[in-house]
Amino acid sequence: MNAKKRVLVCEFHQETNTFNPVTGGVELFRAVRYAEGQKAYALCKNLPCAFHGMIDAIEEAGGEVIPTISLYGGSWGLVKDSVTELLYDRMRHYVAEAGEFDAVFASLHGATCTESEEDACGAFLAFLRELTGEDKIIAASYDLHANITEKSLRCADVICGYQSYPHVDFYETGYRAASLGMRKLMGKPVKLAAVIIPMMTPPAGYTSLEEPFKSIIDYGKSLVAGGTLLDFSVFNVQPWLDIGTIGCTITAVAEDEASACHYADELSKRFFDNRDGYWPDLMSVDEVIDRAEDPASAKPVILVDSADSPNGGAVGDSVFVALRLLARGSKVTAGMFVKDPEAVKKAFEVGVGNTAVFTVGAGYTPGMPGPLVAQGRVRSLHDGSYLQEGPAGKGFPCHIGLSAVIRFGNIDVMVCEKPTGSGDPQILRHFGIEPKVNDLIVVKANTSFRVPYSAFAGEICAADTPGAGASNLKRMDWKNLPKNFYPFDLEEGYTPEAATIRRP
Ligand SMILES: [Zn+2]
Q: pTM for the full model?
């Protein structure tokens, strides 16, 4: 009974956008993180990530970490089935090799679809439950944008999501999930109540730094600080998932069932009642360019093109703003990045300082305007490896493949093979496009950019742009969403279901 608790730790992180036609396999995880065993342990111990938080919480509680597999990717379309085949195979191996153990803790994203499974994280938890039996403790940490399904709630004992958006509590969330898991392993009560609400809203429309979302998170935190709750999460689901099982899930964790249910209900009501407040005010691209052209406006003007955010699972291939700037003959200096491996290849052939006619962008996203065809000068060529400046994810290595900066008129376009981490200024700054000294910067991110960019932005303007991650959700061609779903056809007078405990 007093033997050291032995805990397997694993990780599977990817954010899917089903409107992005580009599927991705193990190579896209490898580009960020694919490591196993002690290598995964050593690598994660040096990063401010959920896996690291889990390691520390287990060891501080006197437990032993058995590191298994860490598969950490960015955002794109569907994950190839070969990835989950690898994940399941390796977990079978580590479980067989571990001998006696007590628990499995998993760092997950939670909004992940594979070619054959729309609820890949729920399916993974069901697989772990089947593999390890009903008596093992399973704790999981998630992104705030996770799609927490009935299946996940039935299979996991502990579920914790980020409480910040922009996300800055990766480590803390892993730590919370693992601490609750260890607590349960010690025989103490951990009751998790949940409410699933049939709704989705665009991530560009809310943050935990501003009302109305802020006060919901702050209220949950006050309940934890005051000892009323052990934990809570508000999962505001990533909306670009055209699937049949989807919703926002609110959880509350307490020592007793009544408190867990009571506060899950209260948080859900507050969250749902504010639903119309989680939408961005969008400006047209021309309105934003007008601001950038106005000598009286503070610079740089940040044009937020969240519709093309690779962080949100869009492609990053839009040249929509560049096309408008060129069509207007605008004189503003501007910078942006565009995914276009063919343009990169050509830039390497043309060489630094030389000029050619380039065709850039609109290569992937269906219906995306473009491409941009114009004479451009190659300014620099890069291997595409750099470190993020943070504060979120400071020091995270990024590998965006071969890349080049091409200047069209007054516009610097960084073309690359596979953009990731697009909310961090280094995706431009590292390549010699200094956001501070341009009139207009196109930021292809939802909210992650706000902390670093707010430090120097003259103005931040959310724009109504096309792309797989459009904030205007009614633009998308939905085929699979459940009926009776906000913001589409939710019945008048709907109120959230009563909280229940799925796994006693
Ligand atoms: Zn997220």
A: 0.85
